[in-house]
Structure formats: C-alpha cells, structure tokens
Amino acid sequence: MSLANKLSEERRARLAAERVLEQKQAELQAANRKLGQHARQLSNEIVETRAEVKTVKDENERVKSDLTVANEKVEQLERRLWHSIETIQDGIAFFDSDSRLIAANEAWLSVFDGLEDIRPGISYVEILQFATEEGIVDTGACAAHEWRENMLDRWQSNAPQPQMIRLWNGAHIKVIDQRGHRGDVVSLAMNITDTVRYQDRLKHARAKAEAASRAKSSFLANMSHEIRTPMNGVVGMAELLQDTQLSEEQMLYAETIKSSGEALLVIINDVLDYSKMEAEKLVLHAEPFDLERCIHELIMLLQPNATDKGLQLLVDYDLFLPTQFIGDRGRLRQVITNLMGNAIKFTEAGQVTVRIVGVHSDDDKVAHLHLTVEDTGIGIPEDEIGHIFGEFNQVDDEHNRKYEGTGLGLAISQKLIEMMNGKIWVESEAGQGSCFGFSVPLPVAEELAPDCFRVASQLNTALVVDPSDTSCAILAKQLGVMGITATCCGSGEEALKLNPEQFDVVLCEHHMHDMDGMELVSAMRERETSTPFIVISDSCQAAQQDPAHRHAHSVLQRPYPRSDLFRALQSLADLMSQPEQIAPEIEAETDLDPRAMRVLAAEDNKTNRLVFSKMIKALDIELQFAENGLEAVELYQSFKPDILFTDISMPEMDGKAAAREIRKLEESAAADAPLPIVAMTAHALDGDADDILNAGIDHYLTKPLKKAAILDHIQGVWREELRPPLPEDQDG
Ligand code: ADP
Fold this sequence. Notes:
Blueprint: H1 3-87, E1 91-95, E2 101-104, H2 106-110, H3 124-133, H4 144-156, E3 163-166, E4 172-179, E5 185-191, H5 193-242, H6 248-278, E6 287-290, H7 291-308, E7 312-317, E8 324-327, H8 329-345, E9 351-360, E10 366-375, H9 382-385, H10 409-419, E11 423-429, E12 433-443, E13 461-465, H11 469-481, E14 485-489, H12 492-497, E15 505-509, H13 517-526, E16 533-537, H14 540-545, E17 554-557, H15 562-575, E18 597-602, H16 606-615, E19 621-626, H17 629-639, E20 643-647, H18 655-668, E21 677-681, H19 688-694, E22 699-702, H20 707-716
Parallel strand pairs: 7-9, 13-14, 13-15, 15-16, 16-17, 18-19, 18-20, 20-21, 21-22
Antiparallel strand pairs: 1-2, 1-5, 3-4, 4-5, 6-8, 9-10, 10-12, 11-12
Helix pairs in contact: 3-4, 5-6, 5-16, 6-10, 7-8, 8-10, 17-18
The chain binds adenosine-5'-diphosphate.
Residues 338, 342-343, 346, 375, 377-380, 388, 393-395, 400, 405-411, 434 line the site of adenosine-5'-diphosphate.
C-alpha cells in the first residue's frame, strides 16, 4: 500500500477518531451537565431537609416544654384535688373494679381509728369484716354477718341505694356509693349526726307542740263546759226571775241579765269555733242523718224568736228529694241555724222561708243540695254585700246598728261550707230582704221510690186555707206531688164561700185574722159540712186546748216533715173507707181519771235542778230528780217515767251510759214504746251531738235550757190517756 493511501487512511482514521472523541466529549459534557444539575438539586433538597429538621426539632422542643408545663399542671391539680378531698369533712374513698381500695381521705380513714390494715389494696369485703369485728359500726338488732351480707348485696347492685350507718360513738353516717363505667366506685360517707340530732330535736319539739295544742283543745273544751254550766244557772234563773212579781225596773234588769248571758254564749261558741278553724283543728264527721228532721228541729228551736216578732217560718222541702244523707249533721245545722238566725234577727215583719231542693242522680248517689233562706227583712246595701262573709264584718248603718252579733257567724259558715266542698252566697236588696244560700254535694243514704208519697185515691181535691201566699203555694205544691189538686184561699170567710163540701179535705192554718182555723171548722160543722178538716198550727198545744179541735181530723204541728203531712192524709184516706169516723165529734168523757205525766230529770248540779224544777213548776206533772246516771236507771224502773231529761256529765254514771243502760233494759223487757230521752248538754265541741245520739238519746237541748223547749218535749210525748201537762187555762 502506497504511503499516500496509508496517509489518507491514517487521516481518515484520525478524523474518525477525532469525531468519536468529539462525540464522547459532547456526551461527557452532557453527563457533566446532568450531574451538575443533580448535584444542585440534591444540594437544594439537603437545604430544605435541614430546614425541616430544624422546624421539627423546634416543634419537639416546644412540645417537650408544653408537656412539662402540662405535667406540672396535672400534678398541681392532683395536689389541689387531694387537698380539697382532704379538706372535705365527709369521707371519700375510691375503689377499683375489683372492689379494692385505691385511695381514701383522712375523714374516711378516721372512722377506722388508725387501723393499719385499712390502706390502699384492701378489699371491700375485708373492710366490712374489720368494721364489724373491731366494733366500729353499731349494727343494732341486726347480727354482724347479716349486716355484712346486706352491705355487700347493696354494694354489688348496679345503683346502690344510700345507706345509713350508726357508729359505736353514736355518730350517724350516710353512705352514698357511685359506680363509674369502668367499674370504679366512689364512696361518699357523710356525717349526718347533726342533722339526725336536729331531726330528733324537731320531732321532740313537734310532739311537745302537739301535746300543747291538744292541751289547748282540751282547755277550750273544758272552758266551754265550765263557762256554759254556770251560764245555764245565770240565764235560767234570770228567766225564772222574770216569772215572779217584779217592778218594771227589776224586770228590765232580769231581761238584761238573760239577754246578755245568751249573747255571751253565742260569742263564746263563735270564738271557740273560729279559733278551732284557725288552728285547723276542726274536722267534719260524716254520718247518716235526716236532713228534713234536722231542719224541722231547727225551726222548732227558732220558732219562739220568730213568733215573738210575729214572723212566719216556712219550710219548702222538695218532695222528690231524699231525706237521709251522709254528712256532718252538727256542722250543717250550725250553718243553717246561723242563716236562719240572721234572717229572723234582721226581719221585722213578714216571713222567713227555707227552701231545700236538690239534683240527685241515681248513678253517683250524691245529691247536689241547694238550700236557701229567704227573708223579708232589712236587706244589705249593695256596697256591703261583698264584705259580709269576712271576719267581724257587719253592715254598719242606721238599720243595722241596733242588732247584736259578733260578725263571725257568716265567716264560720263560709269556712264550714268550703270544708264540705260547697259554696255559699247571698243576694239581697236593701229594704226588701235577703236570700242567703249554699250548695253542697252530699251522698244520699236512702233509696226514694218516686211515688212513695202518693196517697190513696179517695183524696183527690183539697181546699187550702192560709193567709200567707207562700205558705199556700208550698202546701199546694206538696199536695200536687201526692196526687191531690189544691185550691187556695186566704181566709175562713172565703173558704166558706167556696163551699168546702165539694172538696175531699180542708187543710187550714190555725191562726188567721177574723176567723181562725178552729172557728172555721166549727162553722163548717154548724152548717153540717162534714168535709174532713186538718188544722196546721205553730202550736199544737194551743190548738188541742181549743174544744173545737175535736171537729178536726188532726192537728199538724208546723213545720211538719213531709212524712207527717203524708201520714195525716193517708190516715184520712184509710178512714174514708169507714165513713162514720170521718168527722169526729166530741167524745163522751171517760170515767177513768187519767194520771199525771211522770217526768224524770237526771242532773247532778243543784242550781240546775232548781232551774229545771222552776221552769216546769206550772205543769200538772209528777217530777222526780236523779242526781246521777245510776239513780236515773233505778228510777226508770221504779218511777216508770213518760220522759227522761238527762244531763250528760254526771258523777258515777254519765247521761250517755244511763241512756245505753235504759235501752238495754227496754230490749230485755221487750218494751212496747221506748222511753223518750232528751239530753241537756253544755258540751260545745266536736262529736258531742253524735256521741249523744249514738247513745240512744232521742233529742238534745243545749244549755242554758229554755222553758219553751222543755215544755215542747213534754207536750210532744203526751198521750190521750194522760192528764194534759198544761192546765186548760194555761196558754204556755
Ligand atoms: P252577726 O250576725 O253576728 O253580726 P254574721 O257574720 O252572721 O254576724 O253576719 C254579718 C253581718 O251580715 C250582719 O251583722 C249583718 O250586717 C249582715 N247580715 C247577715 N244576714 C243578714 C240578713 N239576713 N239580712 C240583713 N243583713 C244580714
């Protein structure tokens, strides 16, 4: 090969090598650039990482210091918490879920009096064991093992009830255990010794106060009795004094003593009742009673006052209303007495009408009674009406000033009615009259057949003769219910004009102007009018003393219970089937000399015996006294009285025991008619009336006794075969 070729070949090779070198150099440069870039990136990353590490380090430092602060705080809080727990005087202990003691404060541990075994780790069962074995708790009547079992049962329940524990030293601990949700238990032991002692003191003080209050009640009872007994003497003697020969001045003195004594008794009763209500000591005693009878008894009691003032007392008792109710008879009577007493007191002329209606549903056996007392008296001015039920409130005007009173009666009545779940109200117009009313729900104690008051068909028409429109209207309504059509007229002359022959019966008021009831029946008989005649009179006694009363079929004492009116008409209807007996004529006097009535009075107090004997001295009767219940029972057997009046409080045997004894004797001897027994009582407190009536006593009179009331009772039991107690020339 030529040199040139060789040279060119070498040049080509060199050129190729140079190109390879260039390429490799370029590649090396590129790699270097990449490396440089990577190195820069790495260096950047290192810088960043370093910064991050620093941040984390800082953060770490901060967290560390925060943690230290937090730990310090926790420690401080724990210290404070324990300090607080230690400061608490009640014991606190913590138990884990295995019932082992974790910790307890000093107060809790002190109960165990430094026992070393009572320390964290001890179980609850062991604690109970120590408590009983070391005599720390006083388990009382409960045996130690029983006490521990009870305590453990309680501990294991989900929500243990608080438990009272008594310690050996008399301290009382109330244990309250609270279970947490991980099974831990916090046990709180509160020392309630002071509270228990305070409660004991309170109980003691309460018992003492109750004893004092009972003493006060019995003091009130005794006081009322003690005051009333001598007052009976004062008022009774003053009344007797008035029956003697007195100068006008002396008569005034006697009247003043009597009325002041009576007024004082009213005040004493009002104040007693009111103070009992204030002390919430007044309780109602519900028992079956006869409302209609109760109202008629009241009318009889108030009749003398009304008659003195020329007022008529009328009763309108709804014929469809039952008579027997269950309620506090005495307290209802007190309210009605107050309303009627006021009506009579504040009425100078006209009448006082008591109306009783009631809504009675068979389902609930409770009647909603509605009783009103209407009068035609002075009335109450409009601006005063709102106040009169308040205590000591009285209308103060020229019409009212002359009437006496305490102003407590209506306040007491209102409270009583409210206690019976009822309400009381008044409607009144000054100068026209007042209408006081109350409504009370009262359970009914009887079944009333709707037609129980229908009389036999012989009686269809009646002539009612009465000057009072109200009275006529009431009677006509009652007759209507009995199936009798009534025609009313206002005087005897009018009755005669109406031709009484055309009626089946004539019912006539006794006292009328011009021609009274007895004159009317005499006139009718003179005209040979034989229509049966029934006289209605405020005083049966006066009517029976009139010889003309024998022309009458019967005399009805006003106010009459519906049953009396019904009985009188029914007996008439029965007689009409034997016509010859309808118009009784004067019977031939019997040859037999009737005996005098025998009256037995049991009374231990000498003055009261004197008052009693003086009050009935004008009567044609035989009177014997017993000085106690025993003597009364003996005399009942030997003297065979027609009526017994008995005091309640007497030595040896009281009036109630004597009445019970007499009722027993009557039962064993199967006596025909029971002896009428009338109690004379000075008791003013609860339950007395009930006790008296439950002892078999028929009626009771409250002391001071009234002559008229005694006479009424004696007259009420008089029978045809006995000598009339009042001589013919006496008008009572
Ligand atoms: P007292 O009758 O003892 O004064 P009450 O509380 O019974 O006490 O009556 C309060 C007052 O109400 C009476 O003083 C009288 O002013 C008035 N009042 C009560 N009832 C009537 C009545 N029927 N008519 C007129 N005023 C009456």
